[in-house]
């Protein structure tokens, strides 16, 4: 079913797709609920989580603690494991019934698969990989009036917008990260966005609100024949992925380790271990095959905001900074005093990382002794 401007006024409330895997809520869900709360407050509407799975009632209340007013729980053995067909059908049916105005998904593997499928089926717009969300309470229309050659007042479609002039503003990097584009979806609802994990800040958990959240169990139709794929087995990756997003201390390496790659990574590991942190990397290091892609920080890697981010031999390209510049404290070590990383660093050390890092390690060891 397609929605157009004539139907827009019927859409209300902010929804968040609550991703769980094997009964465990993904951390991104709490970030999205926290962000969704902010949007819902600005719009003066409810925030609702939509949770699919089998026997997931126990984890639904947790969502209230981060700001959800309501959680729609769709419980079925057919939803135990994620399948594109099954989840798309149930979500689209729920959207058609309840008509949310905004719908957020995490830009996880599942979110990146599910959100476009739902957007296409609902004939609405999706902005992928957002790094910032906001609400426009009418500025878009002002822009149309003043900044566009459209004859807004006399256009039937646009004049409809005057009745419903709120839009979600979805911001994401564009043109290879060289500019940030803010996108609205004025003609269709729900306006959908996927949001990069780690970008939005999680609110503090509120026990009282968790207990007060309303759980809704709607009727929905889902048959085994609706699902084309069958999950036969789930095999977890043998290698443990590095948890950059949850880390308080990150020591990242860049191409500056080129003259002794193994030695450079070892130094970073030693420093990270001493700080109780993990090793990150620039894309140059990942592309060179010196370290796994799960270590990459930046626009096409992970967005991190640790307490301390140490950049070793990283120039500070815009795409790298996009993933780390919100860290609480940035320490950069680079032999070029004009490296752009120093523009965002709280502490900068101009020097050869192979000389500076061993001195740092010794001083930390001494301080700890
Ligand atoms: P370089 O730019 O080569 O910098 C190496 C630095 O090391 C230099 O500043 C040099 O002065 C210093 N150095 C050299 N030797 C030493 C030494 N002995 N001691 C101290 N310093 C030394 N990049 C990312 O990191 N993450 C991303 O997610 C990402 N996404 C991208 C997406 C797109 C669409 C594009 C186009 C690019 C992306 N990039 C990304 C790549 C980015 O543009 C840069 O090419 C990359 O970040 C450079 O990595 P680097 O700083 O390690 O290497």
UniProtKB/TrEMBL annotation:
Keywords: FAD, Flavoprotein. GO terms for molecular function: electron transfer activity; flavin adenine dinucleotide binding. Pfam families: ETF, ETF_alpha. FAD binds at residues 255, 282-283, 296-300, 313-320, 334. CDD domains: ETF_alpha (cd01715). Its cofactor is FAD. GO terms for biological process: fatty acid beta-oxidation using acyl-CoA dehydrogenase. Residues 14-231 form the Electron transfer flavoprotein alpha/beta-subunit N-terminal domain. The keyword Flavoprotein applies. Binds 1 FAD per dimer. Belongs to the ETF alpha-subunit/FixB family. This is Electron transfer flavoprotein subunit alpha/FixB family protein. It comes from Mogibacterium kristiansenii.
């Amino acid at each position: 079913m397609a929605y157009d401007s004539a139907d827009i006024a019927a859409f209300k409330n902010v929804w968040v797709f609550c991703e769980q895997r094997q009964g465990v809520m993904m951390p991104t869900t709490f970030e999205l609920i926290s962000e969704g709360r902010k949007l819902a407050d600005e719009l003066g509407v409810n925030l609702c989580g939509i949770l699919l799975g089998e026997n997931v009632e126990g984890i639904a209340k947790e969502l209230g603690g981060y700001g959800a007013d309501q959680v729609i729980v769709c419980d079925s053995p057919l939803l135990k494991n994620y399948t594109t067909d099954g989840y798309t059908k149930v979500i689209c049916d729920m959207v058609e019934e309840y008509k949310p105005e905004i719908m957020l998904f995490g830009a996880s593997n599942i979110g990146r698969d599910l959100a476009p499928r739902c957007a296409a089926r609902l004939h609405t717009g999706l902005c992928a990989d957002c790094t910032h969300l906001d609400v426009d309470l009418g500025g878009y229309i002002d822009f149309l009036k003043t900044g566009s050659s459209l004859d807004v007042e006399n256009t039937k479609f646009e004049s409809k917008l005057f009745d419903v002039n709120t839009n979600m503003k979805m911001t994401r990097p564009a043109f290879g990260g060289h500019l940030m584009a803010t996108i609205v979806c004025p003609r269709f609802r729900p306006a959908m966005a996927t949001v990069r994990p780690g970008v939005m800040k999680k609110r503090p958990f509120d026990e009282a609100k968790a207990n007060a959240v309303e759980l809704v169990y709607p009727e929905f139709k889902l048959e085994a024949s609706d699902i084309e794929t069958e999950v036969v087995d789930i095999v977890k990756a043998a290698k443990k992925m590095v948890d950059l997003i949850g880390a308080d201390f990150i020591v990242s390496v860049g191409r500056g380790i080129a003259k002794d790659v193994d030695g450079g990574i070892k130094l970073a590991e030693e420093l990270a271990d001493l700080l109780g942190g993990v090793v990150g990397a620039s894309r140059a290091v990942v592309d060179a095959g010196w370290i796994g892609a799960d270590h990459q920080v930046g626009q096409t890697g992970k967005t991190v905001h640790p307490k301390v981010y140490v950049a070793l031999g990283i120039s500070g390209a815009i795409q790298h900074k996009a993933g780390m510049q919100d860290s609480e404290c940035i320490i950069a070590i680079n032999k070029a005093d004009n490296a752009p990383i120093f523009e965002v660093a709280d502490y900068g050390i101009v020097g050869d990382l192979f000389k500076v890092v061993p001195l740092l390690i010794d001083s930390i060891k001494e301080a700890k002794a």
